[in-house]
Amino acid sequence: MSTQTVTTEGPRSKRALILRAAIESFGDDGFEHTKWASVADKVGIGQTALYHYFESKVHCLLTIMSSELERSATAFAAAVEGQATPTDELRAAVKAALDVGPREVLQARILQSHMDLLASPRQSEREEAERQHARELVRQVEHNWLDLVERGIASGDFAARDAFQTSHMMLAMILSVWRWYREGGALSNEDVREFTTEALLRLVRA
Amino acid sequence: MSTQTVTTEGPRSKRALILRAAIESFGDDGFEHTKWASVADKVGIGQTALYHYFESKVHCLLTIMSSELERSATAFAAAVEGQATPTDELRAAVKAALDVGPREVLQARILQSHMDLLASPRQSEREEAERQHARELVRQVEHNWLDLVERGIASGDFAARDAFQTSHMMLAMILSVWRWYREGGALSNEDVREFTTEALLRLVRA
DNA sequence: CCTTGAACTGAATCAGGTTTGGCTGTGGTA
DNA sequence: TACCACAGCCAAACCTGATTCAGTTCAAGG
């Protein structure tokens, strides 16, 4: 028995396929609107087989959210690494945040739409663990930006203003892009990055 | 028979009470997490009585969203009315958007969390009608801000930059407040309004 | 009184996520 | 070679919570 979800991926594992299918479905049709069974269909397995890999539909969602958070946290660190000034760091961080493929866009949208899920505790042990993990990563991402702002203020590159509000606002400005941005729309990814970077700099510059 | 929802409020109608209870529950615990029946309990009626007023749980949610959109659209119009310059208009609009009571904060949060619901069509007629209505109001609100930006650019008060991206970003900056703001927290409503207004002005000013 | 319709209800029904119990095939090992 | 453990899978039963059914109550108007 047991719905002991796998931690070490076996060679025949369909975990990655399920995640991929779930991201597409959740991203395109919305989480509550997609039937868990339809994800199974997409992968080509029975509905109950899903429970071999995830404890529940929500657990799968939390996993997707964590993975997106993980990506954006590490991308930030990598981008900022070795930049000369806070201004350059900011440019690099924005590029890292916005220069992503279509799957990451979907993940970002999914993450944003269900951020509130991280607020209240989960019944199940594994779900709760995943939630805690995601919360930690959120803190990490927020901390990354807060730190950047504070470095900028300390160095005099950025104006001395409430760093907390500033960093939250920056994050909101960046993430808001996914609300309206569509691949192949009037504005290219490059355009958006350029605009967003300048907007952020206008916001913080001394 | 029929679940013909009431359009003209009768004197014994509990519609307003239901909405009030639903806003509290959806706002505090989240829409998917609150049981429709518990809303009925809160009001003191049987679960099925809810269907006399709303076609479904989602229909109630859509109604709440519309009402919040309506409020913010008209508040914007009223605030901007009669201001001398686009800069003054912006100040007034931000004040109108952020100077709201606790119930409106909840409604704003509910609205944001379920914006994606407006994307895909609904099965039921009345739900779909309410969705269309809400979409129209969203367009209206976005249009309000876009217009403001364009007026500002035309008058030379604001710098000439992509008005579409600018207005979306402004909206995001304002709405992001509800993600972290809590009544009685370290920052007063006044503080936040002040900070946000200045941030927006820095963003658009020529 | 009698009728009408808003307001309401308890008892089904239904949909979808989840649990149960068991089957299959592969890789390691005695 | 025989066997074992366990990842991977499934059909059918189950449970929860939203929704529908088939009425009942009650206040106002004629």
Describe the protein in words.
- The structure is a homodimer of 206-residue chains.
- The first copy, chain A, is 68% helix and 0% strand.
- Chain A has 9 helices and no strands.
- Chain A starts with 14 loop residues before the first helix and ends with a helix.
- Residues 1-6 of chain A have low confidence and may be disordered.
- Chain A folds into 2 domains: 1-54, Arc Repressor Mutant, subunit A (Orthogonal Bundle), CATH 1.10.10; 56-204, Orthogonal Bundle (Tetracycline Repressor, domain 2), CATH 1.10.357.10.
- In chain A, 35% of the residues are buried.
- Chain A has 206 residues and is mainly α.
- Chain A binds chain B through residues 29-30, 32-33, 109, 113, 115-117, 119-120, 161-162, 165-166, 168-169, 171-173, 175-176, 179-180, 187, 192, 195-196, 199, 202-203, and chain B through 29-30, 32-33, 113, 115-117, 119-120, 161-162, 165-166, 168-169, 171-173, 175-176, 179-180, 187, 192, 195-196, 199, 202-203.
- The structure holds a DNA duplex (30 and 30 nucleotides).
- Chains A, B: This is TetR/AcrR family transcriptional regulator.
- Chains A, B: Residues 35-54 bind DNA.
- Chains A, B: It comes from Aeromicrobium endophyticum.
- Chains A, B: Keywords: DNA-binding, Transcription, Transcription regulation.
- Chains A, B: Residues 12-72 form the HTH tetR-type domain.
